[in-house]
Amino acid sequence: MPTLQPVDRLEFQILIDNLTDSLSTAPPNVTLEWTALMRAGMRQLSGRCQCCANHGLAVVVKAFRGAASRVVLFDAGPVEFAVEYNGTRLGIDFASIDAVVLSHGHWDHAGGLPIAFDLITKANGGRAIPCYLHPGMFRQRALPLTGGGLLPIRGIPSPDDLAAKGAVPVVTTEAQVLLDDMFLVSGEIPRMTSYEKGFPGHKRRSEDGQSWEDDPLIMDERFLAVHVGGKGIVVLTACSHAGIINVLKHAQSSFPAIPLYAVAGGFHLAGGNEKIIAESVRDIGTFGLALIAPGHCTGWRAVNALVNAYGDSTVAPLAVGKIFAI
Fold first, then answer.
1. What is the pTM for the complete model shown?
2. CA pair distance 237, 33, nearest whole angstrom
3. Domains of the chain (ranges, CATH numbers)
4. How many CB atoms lie within 10 A of CB 206?
5. Fewer beta carbons under 10 A from the terminal one: N or C of the chain?
6. pLDDT tens digits, one per residue of 173-203
7. CB 51 within 8 A of CB 320
8. How many angstroms separate the CA atoms of 240 and 248, rounded?
């Protein structure tokens, strides 16, 4: 398999996230939503001009090497309207998107895929583009209810459904290097830490569809990585159901000769995982990261703990419309 090659620089813009925040100050390499909206043509500030926040994640990731650039859409958020609503306001160039990567099979990352492909193929003249998927994404899943029983989770579009929308499905458990070797989609993430237990209580349908079975590890989740020359590996992780430390350990072992530089995405340290905030915040410091950008499912308690531990020159939370330049 080809190896990941360095790029000159990287930009990623948050198309969908749980948070909207154009007032908090940010490091100089981070552009806030309102500035991004003005660049896209906003001439008067109003509620109609702003983006909407949603429980989910979608990131437009653009890598540059020389005069060339390649673009990946990493996830598509929970619902179709948010992709079009935010994308239109932010001036996203859907025609430039070369590939789509779906991190894992949950509704809050896959719900916007159908309209994302509609927008992409409409903008690019009907050209089909690859969509990277894991075969374990497609079984129905469910969450436990406090009083007993299960709450089913809406399933994600099948490879055939996506192909009908203009995707070329690439379904594999293995790591893949894509787009002129500028991006890597990881393989399955090994579980190495003692305290990261995944998503206890999470269920999936058995293969015969007749019963539910435990699925706490959610092995279909993978991350996206880019090597920025002179800096190191940038990891984009959607939910970190493997545990954010396991994610970073796997990234580190995948590129033993290259330092990790940044991590951005959902760290899943809210709800039942709040009990491992202290260990996670402690251990994330062992990777020497220049940028920690928590968002989506990280939770405010973990974000505050990260800022308190590493300072706001290192920790810059995600929010809709923000552009991170590396």
1. 0.97
2. 21
3. 9-325 (3.60.15.10)
4. 11
5. N
6. 999 999 999 999 999 999 999 999 999 999 9
7. yes
8. 10
